Amino acid sequence: LPDEILCSIISLLTVREAATTSVLSIKWRHLWKRTLNLNFDIRNNEFILWVDQLLQLYHGSKIETFKVNHPLSNEYVCQSDEWIQFAASRKVQNITLDLSKPKNVCKLYCFLCQLFAQGRCFSLKHLSLTNYNLSMLLGFGGFKSLLSFTLNLTILLLENLQVLLSSCIFLGWLSLTCCICPPRLKI
């Protein structure tokens, strides 16, 4: 089969499973490095190092889905920004970030919408954030292609929400769960 089809098949696997396909043959050795879906949902002490190493090995020019489901301590918050920037530079279409600890509300992480500046936001279609505080600087144009927006355990400032929603002309799904919202939220 052509490499594109094999990469598409490998994209259906978790990152760990995709990486194990490298032992199948010489042809398969580097195919996992171009998988279209990066799903980091593993509970171990080496999570940060593991994700960083995998992203350094990644050779794909495009990412369809980027998921991170792992609580981060305060010292590693900048890592999540680097991962988001990495995904944005690969024209990611779907992002799911859950950095919350199970059964425990921990410190909210700051989601910097500016990481999607300079035309990187046009590919983003689905965004799901858990345990975040949205942060936007003046001049951020919004997510023009966003179709669905899911927020859990998130702090929403009225100004930020208005900028985001006014720029999402194709938005068909908005979900707010356990969010801290302004008392008079108008959508």
TrEMBL record:
Record organism: Cephalotus follicularis
| PANTHER family, per the entry | FBD DOMAIN-CONTAINING PROTEIN (PTHR34145:SF75), OS02G0105600 PROTEIN (PTHR34145)
Q: Start and end of every At1g61320/AtMIF1 LRR domain? A: 59-181
Query: Pfam families, alphabetically?
Result: F-box, LRR_At1g61320_AtMIF1
The UniProt record lists the F-box domain at 1-34
Q: What is the recorded name of this protein? A: F-box domain-containing protein
Q: Taxonomic lineage per UniProt?
A: Eukaryota, Viridiplantae, Streptophyta, Embryophyta, Tracheophyta
